[in-house]
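User: quick one - fold this with magnesium ion bound?
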Amino acid sequence: MKVKDGIIGFIVGDALGVPVEFVSRSILEKTPVVDMNEYGTYHQPKGTWSDDTSMTLATMTSILNKNGIDYIDIMDEFLEWIQKDKYTNSPDGMFDIGFTTHDALLNYHNGASALKSGCEGERDNGNGSLMRILPLAYINSIDYETVENVSSLTHAHKRSKIACVLYVEIAISMLENDFTIAEHVKLACCKIKEYYKGSEELTHFHKIFDNDLKDLNGKGYVIYTFECVIHSLLTTDSYRDAVLKAVNIGGDTDTNAAICGGLAGIYYGYDSIPIDWIDEINRINEVLSLCERYEAFCDES
Ligand SMILES: [Mg+2]
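Assistant: Sure. C-alpha cells for the protein plus magnesium ion:
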C-alpha cells in the first residue's frame, strides 16, 4: 500500500521531532536525537504527533468524506481540530498551531470564504501549508492550481504555493518513477522552473534548484524547511537516517522531520520505517485504517 508509506513516514517524523521542537542545532549536536523520545518541549508522551499530522489527517478525512477536494469542508475539519481536538493523539488535545494557520482559521471562523481566508503577506511564508499537503500527491491527475488552492486556505503567498507544488511533484515522481532521490528532485525542479517561468518567486528556491545546501537554518520558514528536507534526503541512505538528520538540524524539528519523513517513507517504503517507532504512535491503527480507505479512494478516482 503506497499511502501508508508516505503518511506513516510523515507521522513518525513528526513524533520524533515533537520533544525537541525549538531546540537549537548546537545543543542537538552534543545530544542528538537517536530514538523516539517523550516529554521535552510540550511534555507529551512518546509517539505524540503535532499539528502537522492533525492537519494532514483532517485533509485526508475531508477528501474521503467529500469524495474529492472541497475547500470549505477541509476548513471545517481544521476547525474541528482546533475547537474539538479532533485529529489529535495527545492527552492534552491540540497543543500547538502556527500563527498564520491560526489567523487564517480565525478569518474563516469570522465569515471569510475558504479560499479568501489564507494570509498572503511575505511574513506568512511559514511551513504551515507545506506540512499538510502530502495527501494531494496520491490523487490521480491532481493539478497545480488545486495544490495552490489547498495551500491558500491558510498560506496564500505565492512562495508557499510554489513550495507545495514542488513537494507534491517530488512525491509524485517518487510514486511513479524508479530514480535516485537526486534525480527525483532534479526532475521536479525542472518542471516547477518551467511552469513558473518568469516568476520572481523562483529566486527564493535557488539553493534547492542548485543543490547548494550547506548553510541550513532549521527555523520554520518554508524555504528553510524545504532546504533542510532536501539536504536530509540527499545526504543519507535510509528512512531512519534521513528523519534523524532532519530532526537534529534543530529548530522546527517536528515539521522538518515530518516533511522529510513523508518523502523518505515513499522512497524507502513502509518496511524501512523502524517498527518500534511505529508501535509508539498512539492511535496508529486508526491512521492505518484511514490510509487504507484513502488508498482505495485514490485508486478509484
Ligand atoms: Mg508541529
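One thing worth noting: The chain has one domain: 2-300.
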